[in-house]
Design a protein that fits this description.
The chain has 304 residues and is α+β, with helices and mostly antiparallel strands. Among the domains are: 114 residues, no CATH class; 95 residues, no CATH class. It is 40% helix and 14% strand. The strands form 4 sheets. A 4-stranded antiparallel beta sheet has the order 2-9-6-7, covered by helices on one side. The relative contact order is 0.16.
Length: 304
């Protein structure tokens, strides 16, 4: 045993600020290059949020058939247009895959606190004025929500009917609601492999993280790559009790991201439009070159 340890040993260098990770010499070299080339994601011009929390999905998340029914019940064309804007495509964690998602034809009735006066800062707490306006301006939606009033009213007792109205979502992204219309990277917390997808003009539930900001396609290619997956798993990431990676905001923000590459953005855009393993492999190779890996290090990452 002692002979084996002497033959297989590797010297690992630690600084006081580093997490203690045991790596082979080639892995140490790869880690150093990633950290030398990249800038932590938290220092990029991006924002990371969670999706909305309805508190009772049966009322807020509807099928295409139910959406069409609600729109058909609108009394005027003006009401129909306003109602259509209120009902948005919704993504769940199970819908997300690498680079894209399989939309389940589900919609979210997006009702903020104090709707339709959600931007009136003078309103504090549940508002009868807001409910009256909601009923008058959106009668078809109000009628749909009314059938769920009892279970909706039984949500968080410290908030429902006190801080916000019974018909409003529990958390609607008050500080970032407009980010849902922007280009996004969406992902779920628990996944063995990176599953970051591109999305736009779609709202997600609270089991989904999403990122907006600059160079979204470039960052998407990096986050889905084998190299960054290796770095996350071995150097900074955390796992669940059964070993599944936890892609949390505070850990993802630590990933050193390589400087922007037009080639990577183009390739990421193409793979979002049509996924193929060949395109995925080409992105992996390009990412390795962006971090200045040599041929031996590239072969090591490619073999994983």
């Amino acid at each position: 045993m002692s002979d084996f340890v002497q033959q297989q040993n590797a010297v690992c260098q630690f600084s006081s600020s580093d997490a203690w990770v045991i790596l082979s010499p080639i892995e140490q070299s790869i880690k150093r290059k990633i950290e030398a080339v990249g800038t932590p994601l938290k220092d990029w011009n991006i924002n990371i949020y969670r999706g909305v929390l309805t508190g009772y999905n049966d009322a807020f998340i509807i099928s295409t058939e139910k959406r069409n029914e609600i729109l058909a019940n609108c009394q005027t064309e003006d009401e129909r247009q306003r109602t259509a804007e209120l009902i948005r495509p919704i993504l769940r964690g199970r819908d997300i895959k690498r680079y894209g998602y399989d939309w389940a034809n589900l919609w979210l009735i997006y009702i903020p606190w104090h709707f339709p006066y959600q931007f009136d800062d003078s309103i504090q707490g549940a508002s009868e004025k807001a409910e009256k306006a909601f009923k008058e301006q959106y009668p078809a939606v109000y009628s749909h929500m009314l059938q769920y009033k009892e279970p909706l009213s039984k949500r968080n007792k410290a908030e429902t009917g006190i801080r916000y109205e019974w018909y409003a979502m529990q958390r609607w992204g008050a500080k970032y609601w407009d980010d849902f219309s922007k280009q996004q990277i969406v992902w779920i917390e628990l996944s063995d492999e990176p599953k970051f997808a591109f999305a736009e003009n779609v709202t997600s539930v609270n089991t989904v993280f999403f990122m907006t900001g600059e160079h979204i396609l470039h960052l998407l290619g990096l986050l889905n790559s084998k190299l960054i997956s290796w770095y996350f798993r071995h150097c900074i990431g955390t796992t669940s009790g059964v070993g599944t990676n936890r892609w949390l905001k505070y850990t993802i923000e630590q990933i050193p991201m390589a400087p922007t590459s037009v080639d990577l953005e183009i390739m990421a855009k193409e793979i979002c439009q049509h996924y193929s393993k060949d395109k995925d492999n080409k992105i992996d190779l390009l990412v390795c070159h962006l971090y200045d890996l040599n041929s031996e290090e590239i072969n090591y990452i490619s073999s994983l």
